[in-house]
TrEMBL record:
It is a multi-pass membrane protein. Keywords: ATP-binding, Cadmium, Cell membrane, Ion transport, Membrane, Metal-binding, Nucleotide-binding, Transmembrane, Transmembrane helix, Transport. Gene3D superfamilies: Calcium-transporting ATPase, cytoplasmic domain N, Calcium-transporting ATPase, cytoplasmic transduction domain A, HAD superfamily/HAD-like. It is an enzyme of class 7 (translocase). Its EC number is 7.2.2.21. GO terms for cellular component: plasma membrane. The chain crosses the membrane at residues 7-26, 32-50, 227-245, 252-272, 549-576. PROSITE patterns: ATPASE_E1_E2 (PS00154). Pfam families: E1-E2_ATPase, Hydrolase. It is found in: Cell membrane. InterPro entries: ATPase_P-typ_cyto_dom_N, ATPase_P-typ_P_site, ATPase_P-typ_TM_dom_sf, ATPase_P-typ_transduc_dom_A_sf, ATPase_P-type_domA, Cation_Transport_ATPase_IB, HAD-like_sf, HAD_sf. This is Cd(2+)-exporting ATPase. Residues 112-211 form the P-type ATPase A domain.
Length: 608
């Protein structure tokens, strides 16, 4: 039975017992109803407690069960119903705080390649991807997703592998080059030979990694459970001594009523719910309370590069022109020739110029995998790969570049780079100030590019050229004193890493649904600075939660000592417990407000 159902049942039957007791004076009927409810709840809690103990954990249920049974045994059934309402109400709040959104893989599975065009005896047949065998020849048409892993037999095209490697730059593939399933073909048809069946190909490997990671969730102890053992022992000790001295079993029940662990059960969930509400106001979805606990004590934060620390959009970096052309003239010629192309680099060039300076263009021809030729303002222009444009010996830039010739004379080249997010540097600084000294960048990008980005932002350690399995290895290899480990990413290739990390954070505004579903925290706005905000909120929430729990415990211990003298009847003790609950609840609700550190972070980010 769900906790919310138990709570509703206890409240309903409690109201019924009140009605029978005070309207019809049916004392026995009211006592029987409360006793049956109390025994039923106690049995269900006992079963849950046994399961918890078998899993190697310890909770606060033992003390709660003892309080219910003791009050029923000595006939203090109204005190029992008050305790029952608090216990089941606390469990319901904890369920709400846990807010089990799950980590569904359906979107990842839906986007996986389903069909393949198999070439056999000169005929093209469309088959399900599961029917494709090793050594089959498969045709991948423009715009299609590569269905399985293989090597190129004929043709040449540009492929987008960013969802697999995190590498933002498009990759040109020609004969004998490897192809990974899940990469997206550009504008040229290619024929490939299958090297792995669908189940063993790269995209399905990512799916399996996420599933395997989900099957082994990280163990983390709830906040209340850490105080359960000492609090329970103290409660039993005081109650036992009171019973021994007074020789009255009622005294035992009176002590345990005020010792009921409602502050432990209520305070933490309410603080966590308040913290999640605060995060939601800041464009951050935190999926459960355990995530807040882990994130608040994080020692390491790892970032993907493309789309996370960078914008994930290639933009013009440098324009190198040769006489007689200036940089502005070269850019205008290139943009004019590329204005009808849908290629990612072409769009970046066209978007970088004023449309009013575009020159007349005609006779545009595209050479697959190489570039284009066109007549621009009555000049013959070539744009594309270096060997397509010129035979001159040139120093090759490290970044992605396209080359331009005019009337068969080399005119220059344009380089592109993924732009670092403007808020990236201040975010790393803020994380350092919040106690995160071990910052990592785990990227599928080449070493030179990754190191440049990491150094510019202030990342402590950079890992480059990492596939999804490599990212997982880096996260798992972090030493215990550097845990909990947090991973921040946005692509399909990040989904396994987000799942295997102690806390996974997805940049959900532009990231893949699979990454968002695999993550514990989702940033709803395209703003890396909200990672620091999420950490600040988590730390403040846990501070308030611990304070409210400890306040409740100290008040309860004081009430137990008073109850041990016999001056607090069981029902009055249960009502005192309500006062304790109210105090702890009001304190826990402080987590809903924006704390001073968070306000300072927001102000710093606004000044970027």
């Amino acid at each position: 039975m769900k906790h919310t159902t138990k709570f509703a049942l206890v409240v309903l039957l409690g109201v019924l017992a009140l009605f029978l007791e005070f309207s019809f004076h049916l004392h026995l009927a009211a006592q029987i109803i409360i006793t049956v409810v109390g025994i039923f709840i106690s049995i269900t809690m006992l079963i849950e407690m046994i399961k918890t103990l078998r899993s190697g954990k310890y909770g606060v249920d033992l003390l709660a069960i003892t309080a219910i049974v003791a009050t029923l045994a000595v006939g203090e059934y109204w005190a029992s119903i008050v305790v029952l309402i608090m216990l089941t109400g606390g469990d319901s709040l904890e369920d709400y705080a846990a807010h089990k959104a799950g980590k569904e893989l359906q979107n990842l599975l839906d986007n996986s390649p389903q069909k393949a065009h198999v070439l056999s005896d000169g005929h093209l047949t469309t088959k399900s991807v599961e029917a494709v065998q090793v050594n089959d020849q498969v045709v991948v048409k423009p715009g299609e997703v590569v269905p399985v892993d293989g090597i190129v037999l004929s043709g040449s095209s540009i492929f987008d592998e960013s969802s697999l490697t995190g590498e933002s730059n498009p990759v040109t593939k020609s004969i004998s080059d490897d192809l990974m399933s899940g990469s997206i073909n550009g504008d040229g048809a290619i024929t490939m030979k299958v090297t792995k069946i669908a189940a063993d190909s790269q995209y399905q490997t990512i799916v399996k990694l996420v599933k395997a990671s989900e099957a082994q969730p990280a163990h983390f102890v709830r906040l209340a459970d850490r105080y359960a053992i000492p609090f329970t022992l103290i409660s039993y000790l005081i109650a036992g001594i009171a019973w021994y001295i007074s020789k009255d079993p009622v005294r035992f029940a009176e002590v345990l009523v005020v010792a009921s662990p409602c502050p432990l059960i209520l305070a933490a969930p309410i603080a966590l719910v308040s913290g999640m509400s605060s995060a939601n106001r800041n464009g951050i979805i935190i999926k459960n309370g355990t995530t807040i606990e882990k994130f608040a004590t994080a020692k390491t934060i790892a970032f993907d590069k493309t789309g996370t620390l960078t914008k994930g959009i290639l933009a013009l970096d440098q324009i190198k022109s040769f006489p007689p052309y200036s940089t502005d003239q070269l850019l205008a010629i290139a943009a004019s020739a590329e204005q009808q192309s849908s290629h990612i680099l072409a769009r970046s060039i066209v978007n970088a110029v004023d449309k009013n300076i575009l020159l007349p263009v005609s006779e545009i021809q595209e050479v697959t995998g190489m570039g284009i030729t066109a007549q621009v303002d009555q000049h013959h222009v070539k744009i594309g790969r270096k060997k397509f444009v010129t035979t001159e010996t040139l120093e090759t830039p490290k970044q992605t570049a396209i080359y331009i010739s005019v009337d068969d004379k080399f005119a220059g080249y344009i380089t592109f780079s993924d732009q670092i997010r403007p808020e990236a540097s201040i975010t790393i600084t803020q994380l350092n100030e919040l106690g995160i000294k071990n910052t990592l960048m785990i990227s599928g990008d080449q070493k030179a590019t990754a190191n440049m980005v990491g150094n510019q932002i202030g990342i402590a350690k950079v890992y480059s050229e990492c596939l999804p399995k490599d990212k997982i290895a880096v996260l798992k290899d972090q030493e215990n004193h550097l845990r909990p480990v947090v991973m921040v990413g946005d692509g399909v290739n990040d989904a396994p890493s987000l799942t295997v990390a102690d806390v996974g954070i997805a940049m959900g505004a532009r990231g893949s649904t699979a990454a968002s579903e695999s993550a514990d925290i989702v940033i709803l706005k395209d703003d890396l600075g909200r990672v620091a905000r999420a950490l600040s909120i988590s730390q403040y929430t846990m501070k308030i939660a611990k304070q409210s729990v400890l306040i409740g415990i100290f008040i309860c211990i004081g009430l137990m000592l008073i109850a041990a003298t016999g001056i607090i009847p069981a029902l009055i003790g249960a009502l005192f417990q309500e006062v304790v609950d109210t105090v702890t609840i009001l304190w826990a609700l402080l987590a809903h407000r924006d704390n001073a550190d968070l306000k300072q972070l927001i102000a710093q980010q606004k000044n970027i």
